Amino acid sequence: MDGVLRNACPCLRSLCDRLFGTEKTDGSKSGSEEVVHAPASEESRDPATGPRSPRPPRAPESQPDDRLLYTALWPFEARAEEELSFQEGDLFEVTSRAGDWWTARKVDRHGRVVATGIVPYNYLARGESVEAEPWFFGKMNRFEAQKHLMAAENTDGAFLVRLSENNSVGYVLSTKVGNKIKHVKIHQTQGRFFVDNSNSFTTLVELVDHYMSNPLASLQRLQAACVKKQPKPKDLSHSTVDEYELPKEEFSLDEQLGRGYFADVYRGKWKNQINVAIKVLKSEHLNQRAFQQETQMLKKLRHRHLITLLAICSSSYPYYIIMELMEKGSLLEFLRGPEGSDLDHMSLVDMAAQVADGMTYLESLKSIHRDLAARNVLVGENYICKVGDFGLARFVKGHKRKREKRGETRLSNMRSGGWGLLTDPKEWDL
Fold it and tell me: How far is it, in rounded angstroms, from Cα 268 to Cα 251?
């Protein structure tokens, strides 16, 4: 089936690759990662050894030495007593790498320890590694690179280096040329990096420095690094990773974002500091123990295309479900609005692929969504799409949801011992 889709509609290759895996050809090409080669390197010829097969780059080696310095890429304000506040450029020695929050010592330029505490891991990069470079964006596909580079703050010549999601491609240099994005493969062999046969370099840093001073084939010189967005910690704080039942008094409700059969959604804040989305459940016929058990399971679901459950408030009615805030709202309203209406075809395909990616993750855990629809997919910066409302239908007693438009009531039961697949197409509600 995937082969038919790829051949009949090439624009769906990105979606097919995520659903069925990468297409294998003699050249190990992928429909989701099309990169160009500099003219002198079209045959992937190494200057010293001649023709070679594509080889994925070696992953950086783990260095457990706690004297290894890490650099803060962005500022961070502590959210709990044990956490450290810091500024961009501060130095750290990491002493414990557990989950998404690390224990570290903040040191000054002379190596003296000035504070010890807990920090979010995704704000740090090894000081002497490529991860600390402003132009390195880690593992990323071409559509995500395009979204970053086409942001308004990036001018012509903006660039980034990324590690392709297709392992046979390796490192890729993506640069903005006018209103288009060009992707150039960076070859790697025998510890050296090159994009053409005339120049090779021992590090990616040397390669980038060279092409910031010299043109690359049909491209002009690289200009400024692509603006890198500050990430969000994956939890409200390190203390809420396991203890996510929080008092309602810590949250404030602001404007209403949406209304639904089960709940109303509000923009809110946690401790007047962190923006969140707060879902206020309407039904009072909820079993508190069952609700907490379900949310405990949902809290463990972590995927870049699923809405993150941050906390719950279930000590009194109405119950609160605290989730990450997606600024652009539901996919349904977004596509009906002016910004969504102007998106090109490939961007829309990529958004669909993101939703499929999140659903594939749920399926891998033997879970079903029960109510997948555009209204339950949320959109954030750079058109990141995340599936929401998974599992919510099971919180309501009897697992019933009134279908107002058709005047029907759907009853979806769970198989004993796990989730069951819905085999009736009428229940898919896609």
Answer: 7
Q: Do 23 and 93 fall into the same domain?
A: no
* Percent of the chain scoring above 90 in pLDDT: 45
User: Are the CB atoms for 379 and 334 separated by under 8 Å?
Assistant: yes
For the stretch 257-294, pLDDT in tens is 988 777 899 999 999 989 999 999 887 667 777 777 77
314 lies in the same domain as 403:
yes
DSSP 110-152: TS-EEEEEEEEGGGEEETTSGGGSTTEEEE--HHHHHHHHTST
Answering whether pTM is above 0.85, one says: no
Average pLDDT over residues 40-64: 40
Same domain, 122 and 9: no
Q: Is residue 56 part of a domain?
A: no
Residue 76 inside a domain? The answer is yes
Same domain, 392 and 253: yes
Q: Cβ atoms within 10 A of the Cβ of 405, count?
A: 6
Task: Tell me the CA distances in angstroms from 198 to 169, 209, 215, 402, one per residue in order.
Answer: 21, 16, 13, 67
Residues 7, 116, single domain; the answer is no
Domain CATH number, residue 108: 2.30.30.40
371 flagged as catalytic: yes
Q: What is the pLDDT of residue 392?
A: 56
C-alpha distances out from residue 146 to 111, 150, 345, Å = 40, 6, 14
Mark whether 239 and 124 lie in a shared domain.
Answer: no
Whether residue 187 lies inside any domain: the answer is: no
Q: Which domain holds residue 20?
A: 1-32
Residue 164: CB atoms within 10 A of its CB come to 25
Residues 158, 223 contacting (CB under 8 angstroms): yes
Neighbouring-strand partners of residue 180: 177
* Average confidence (pLDDT) over 214-220: 81
Between CA 95 and CA 104 the distance in angstroms is 5
Q: Give me the amino acid identity at 218.
A: S
pLDDT digits (tens, 9 = 90+) for 9-30: 444 555 555 555 554 433 334 4
- Selected residue with higher pLDDT from 265 and 407: 265
Place of tokens 């438009």: 405
Q: Which of 2, 371, 389, 424 is catalytic?
A: 371
Residue 358 belongs to what H/E stretch? helix 345-364
Q: What is the mean pLDDT of residues 107-127?
A: 92
Count of the separate structural domains present in the chain: 3
Phi (first) and psi of residue 135, to 5 degrees: -95, -5
**pLDDT, position 147:** 85
